[in-house]
Amino acid sequence: MMPAPILRIENISKRYGKKDVLQGASLEVNKGDLKILIGPSGAGKSTLLQCINFLVKPDEGRIWLDEQEVHYAHKRDLYAYRQKVGMIFQDFNLFDHLNALENVRIGMVKVKGMGKAEAGERAVMELERVGLGDHMQQYPAQLSGGQKQRVSIARALAMDPKVLLLDEPTSALDPELIGEVHAVIRDLGNNGMTMIMATHQIGFARSLASEIIFMEDGRILERGTPDKIFNHAENARTRGFCSKITELYGER
Amino acid sequence: MPGSLIAIGDALPYLLRGSLVTLIVVIGAMGLGLVLGVPLAVGQVYGHPALRRVIAVYVWFFRGIPLLVLLFLFYFGLCTALDINLSAFAVAIVVLGLISSAYQSQIFRGAILSLPEGQFKAARALGMSDLKAISVIILPQAIRLSVPGWSNEYSILLKDSAVTYALGVAEIMARAHFVATRTYQQLPLYFAAGVIFLILTWVGTKGLRLLEEKVRIPGYSTHGL
To answer: Cα distance from A142 to chain B (closest Cα, Å)?
Structure first.
């Protein structure tokens, strides 16, 4: 028997003015999956991710986490749900007035109501896990891009999320810093973290994804294993995009 | 010349007690302006459009009417009409505080808007309510960014406080005027009053500069490039 998906997204649509940025996107994510969203800019990848934790309110569609429908109009449900769905942003969005340790701790203290000492211990653990044990007292302005992104991953992990959403986590990084962030994400995947990630890093996507989802113009056009999408795509648009992006970003 | 120095020397203790009154008025007004200015700024940035309009009218009102008019309007007008028994001193603090809240709200508003909006998003993504994200993430940074603006606000309030002399508040100007008209030593006394204001401005802006340095976020400079 197939296990029930941990996250189910049905028919999410969003329009800004006259422009449909998302048209009926549906997705089922099982525990431990790494779904990778690819597609040109403006395809709706980022909007889809932000709709999943309701930072952008979808106009239509429903979402279930652990078979419980999310009633996002109820603030209490929404805040509880967001704790379980971590978000990693392209430009990190660390809290500039807090050092690395405080950045990771603040969610546990202010949202979960944990004590400072206990939350601090957990924060230390999460920062060590992403290899930043030596940088805990440093402020965002004193960290490199790769370090900032790792702090933001630690910040999300400290909330014990069931699913992690990653919105082009390495797009704002210098090429030589991408590896350290990829290593952390790879580690998470190996430890069974469920993730949905938008990225242009095709080599990385190929080697790790359980499924690749190709989006264009607010629609999911095709989905399948990396092998299927990159080597035997059915849709001409998918094939065109994949060959272009492999030329640009491909590692192998 | 010795006569002038003697006149200043004689009046100095009296003037210095006046500077204490001036300082209490200024600090009281700045405090009131801060307490009201922060929620006004938050309301103007994040509030419902109707609330924003109300706040815009409030700001327009207190920035648009001359201080002297507002002082008379509140002290001789409102207090009498509503039968409120407030001292000139208290009215001075309230009126200057309300005006300052209008100006300070714009300092905070600018500071809030200058923060990258991603931080607010990230805070909500952690499960914070809007209000919590504003109080825990946005305001601590916005208030830090507002300290340089306060220096401006402080020196303006300090100078404006001299106008409360018109209500009979016993601050520096009122006292200098009182002694000057009795002793006919106008030049030395008004000169002394001016010097006291200059010293208070210097001390205050220096203090705020130190505060700015003290609350600086590591990795950011306060000294320009």
So the answer is: 5
Task: Return the closest-CA partner of residue A39 out of A242, A215, A237, A222.
Answer: A215
Other C-beta atoms closer than 10 Å to the C-beta of B197 total 19
Q: Do B218 and A159 touch (CB under 8 A)?
A: no
Residues of B in contact with A93 (CB under 8 A): 116, 118-119, 121-122
The helix/strand/coil state of B47 is coil
What is the tens place of the pLDDT at every residue in A38-61?
999 889 999 999 999 999 999 999
DSSP bridge partners of A62: A10
To the question of pTM greater than 0.90 for the whole model, the response is no
Upper half-sphere CA count for residue B135 (Cβ side, 13 Å): 7
Task: Give the nearest chain B residue to A107 (CA atoms).
Answer: B126
CB–CB contact B217 A93 (8 Å): no
Size of interface A-B (CB pairs under 8 A): 75
Per-residue pLDDT tens for A152-188?
999 999 999 999 999 999 999 998 899 999 999 999 9
CATH number among 1.10.730.10, 1.10.3720.10, 3.90.70.10, 3.30.300.20, domain B20-172? 1.10.3720.10
Q: Which CATH superfamily includes the segment(s) A7-249?
A: P-loop containing nucleotide triphosphate hydrolases (3.40.50.300)
